[in-house]
């Protein structure tokens, strides 16, 4: 089987037919499936969509059970946690979505962890990290765009000279370079390439 446009988060099972991994959708399995929007809803109370998955949380006064259901808890209501709580060795502890959130100084609310500045994020050399609440994603560096070639997605250089997105002077030549471009004044002209006289 050959899938001409590839299967980003899935596998090719027939001519141009992808079988997506759980949590992904689309013709080439390149889109995140928002499980929180499914019927029936996967979570009893709060649902937070994540890349390729989702997480369940309970309203204040409820405890998250192993099966994802929320059980009423008077003791949890007293603690006043943002995302519900759990009992650990007889003590109540507020919960935070694991991974990208951590318990704040007050022990009740959850704060975002900036994976990009903490160095926890793993992005390839030609991608930059973008922090989001509770997570992060990797985006192509400026001057690069996401393209599908040779069976996978990659960030490739944008040729500003061909795309005509450069700001070179009309009396200058545009020279494409990796991730950017240069402007050089034509023979008989002087200047930066952006200004030529």
TrEMBL record:
Record domain EGF-like: where: 32-71, 112-150, 157-195
Q: Which compartments is it annotated to reside in?
A: Secreted, Extracellular space, Extracellular matrix
Give the InterPro entries listed for this entry: EGF, EGF-like_Ca-bd_dom, EGF-type_Asp/Asn_hydroxyl_site, EGF_Ca-bd_CS, Growth_fac_rcpt_cys_sf, Nephronectin_domain, NOTCH1_EGF-like
Which top-rank group of organisms is this from?
Eukaryota
Coiled-coil regions listed in the entry: none
In terms of Pfam families, this protein maps to: EGF_CA
Q: Give the SMART domains listed for this entry.
A: EGF, EGF_CA
* Gene Ontology annotations of biological process type: cell adhesion; cell differentiation
* GO MF term (any one): calcium ion binding
Note whether Repeat occurs among the keywords.
yes
Q: Which keywords describe this protein according to UniProt?
A: Calcium, Cell adhesion, Developmental protein, Differentiation, Disulfide bond, EGF-like domain, Extracellular matrix, Repeat, Secreted, Signal
Major location (coarse): secreted
Stated family: Belongs to the nephronectin family.
Q: What is this protein called?
A: EGFL6 protein
